[in-house]
Model the fold of this input.
Amino acid sequence: MALIIDGKKISSDIKEEVKTKVAALKSKGIRPCLAVIQVGKDPASTVYVGNKKKACAYTGIESRAYELPEETTQEQLLELIRRLNEDDTVHGILVQLPVPDHMDEKEIIRTISPAKDVDGFHPQSVGALSIGEPGFVSCTPAGIIQLLKRSGIEIDGKNCVVVGRSNIVGKPMAMLLLRENGTVTVCHSHTRNLREICSRADILVAAIGKPKFFDASYVKDQAVVIDVGIHRGADNKLCGDVDYEAVADKAGAITPVPGGVGPMTIAMLMSNCAESAVRMCGHE
Ligand code: GUN
Done:
């Protein structure tokens, strides 16, 4: 039976560490603050934003919510971001994605100051990650590195296969594994022999976006399997990109869905916010 990597426990540990860090900052008169912007009323986004606000409250970070109407113009949103960039009492700025169709997401991301880019989406943050300079890292892949490290799983020298090449997960995941001295292969929709490549992985990161896609034939004996997917099945139960029941006996370690990668994203967002406050006050 595989080690079940407990994302709930590890994310909770990280949030406790953030809470301690935030309390120390507050004792020095610094009040970490995250600005959370949502444009429109997409129900899924409202749930995500609500969870982020709750995590802020738990860790002692102030959350400043901006709920803008669907018809907000691009320029109005950019104006708000510029104002928050200049506001010394704000340490992180997050625009919940997706934004409405009439908006230009790339321009929005580029307008957020890299010093406050706690999502790690700004081209400067992405570039810094790729050349090993300090900067914020996308929360889900950063959380996966924490899951591995805190479960005592070595990355150095391992064959790591990432399935998925999104800007938010796949690409930064590959960069982070490379930074940890993994030998990294990135697979995507045009990859040939996907099963064969996956079945050689010591660490397999599944971010393909298809429910229960990876069965035991994709998994090497005793491999570490990280499941980034989250889907609601026909039976109304949550499942990941990995067929958990089929893979659990073969893997050496595996993340469950729910309770694996999912809770790590917000924990790392909190960690990035606290870190931003530390960096900003260090520069004053
Ligand atoms: N939408 C889905 N995931 C995310 C995320 O991590 N950050 C932001 N800003 N929007 C999202």
User: Anything to note?
Assistant: The chain has two domains: 29-113, 139-262. The CA atoms of residues 3 and 253 lie 4 Å apart. The mean pLDDT is 97. The longest helix spans residues 7-27.
